[in-house]
């Protein structure tokens, strides 16, 4: 299971220089976004029958949808956005201990803008944290998490616990809609760590020449995304791209490749 957070640049931040390794040719840039189709919005407060049918329909048609009235308090989402923005506004030197290009390291920062990585660079900074499947966690579990801001660890724990619970409930509803046992995706299939990716996109002098992320498929079971105020998420649909505009209070849900294989 994966949680993602997309953060807009601070209004006070200065645009960084765009070097050759951050510029992509036209064939690597997604085609124009369609303005005709939008993703389904599922109201979790409606009847269980309506919700599970809507989840199945949206999953089969798009693999993506938005959920509202999902039970995660607004203050939890707001705190998560704020504390992660505080983290990225810290000086680069004070976050350097978290930096690593080792993909096997579960807790780290990697970046295409702030630190020199070599090779192609995508225009984002990412904080990746491995979050246990249940809280409270044992001593030492969070030792590799950021030390500052001081409240970050508690905020991340609360946000991750609640979003994981929502993810499990969405999978139960999907299972019911397909006529299989509700706990089909529980146990070993979803018992691992929740991977939290916090994506931060600094101001870019020429956004039409670069990419924050390349076109890709999520390889996990299910992803829940809190967009914040960031515009730029596109979803591939029938050879075109749907622009997903941020919706206050909503979470974007993406069924990953593991889920597609399982069903």
From TrEMBL:
GO terms for molecular function: dioxygenase activity; metal ion binding. InterPro entries: DIOX_N (IPR026992), IPNS-like_FE2OG_OXY (IPR044861), IPNS-like_sf (IPR027443), Oxoglu/Fe-dep_dioxygenase_dom (IPR005123). Gene3D superfamilies: B-lactam Antibiotic, Isopenicillin N Synthase, Chain. Pfam families: 2OG-FeII_Oxy, DIOX_N. Residues 191-263 form the Fe2OG dioxygenase domain. The keyword Oxidoreductase applies. Keywords: Iron, Metal-binding, Oxidoreductase. PANTHER family: OXIDOREDUCTASE, 2OG-FE II OXYGENASE FAMILY PROTEIN, PROTEIN DOWNY MILDEW RESISTANCE 6. Belongs to the iron/ascorbate-dependent oxidoreductase family. This is Fe2OG dioxygenase domain-containing protein.
């Amino acid at each position: 299971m994966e949680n993602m957070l997309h953060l807009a640049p601070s209004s006070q931040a200065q645009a960084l220089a765009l070097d050759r390794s951050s510029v992509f040719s036209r064939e690597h840039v997604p085609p124009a976004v369609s303005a005709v189709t939008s993703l389904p919005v599922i109201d979790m407060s409606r009847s269980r029958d309506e919700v599970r049918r809507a989840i199945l329909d949206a999953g089969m048609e798009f693999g993506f949808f938005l959920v509202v009235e999902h039970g995660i308090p607004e203050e939890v989402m707001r705190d998560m956005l704020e504390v992660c923005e505080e983290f990225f506004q810290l000086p680069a030197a004070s976050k350097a201990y978290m930096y690593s290009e080792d993909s096997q390291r579960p807790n780290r920062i990697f970046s295409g803008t702030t630190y020199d990585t070599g090779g192609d660079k995508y225009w984002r900074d990412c904080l990746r944290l491995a979050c246990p499947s249940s809280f409270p966690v044992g001593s030492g579990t969070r030792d590799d998490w950021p030390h500052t801001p001081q409240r970050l660890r508690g905020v991340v724990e609360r946000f991750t616990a609640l979003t994981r619970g929502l993810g499990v409930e969405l999978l139960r509803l999907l299972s019911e809609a397909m006529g299989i046992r509700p706990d089909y995706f529980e146990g070993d299939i979803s018992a691992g760590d929740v991977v939290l990716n916090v994506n931060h996109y600094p101001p870019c002098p020429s956004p039409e020449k670069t990419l924050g992320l390349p076109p890709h498929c999520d390889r996990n079971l299910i992803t829940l995304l809190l967009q914040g105020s960031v515009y730029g998420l596109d979803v591939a649909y029938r050879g075109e791209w749907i622009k997903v505009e941020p919706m206050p209070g909503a979470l974007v849900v993406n069924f990953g490749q593991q889920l597609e294989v399982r069903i």
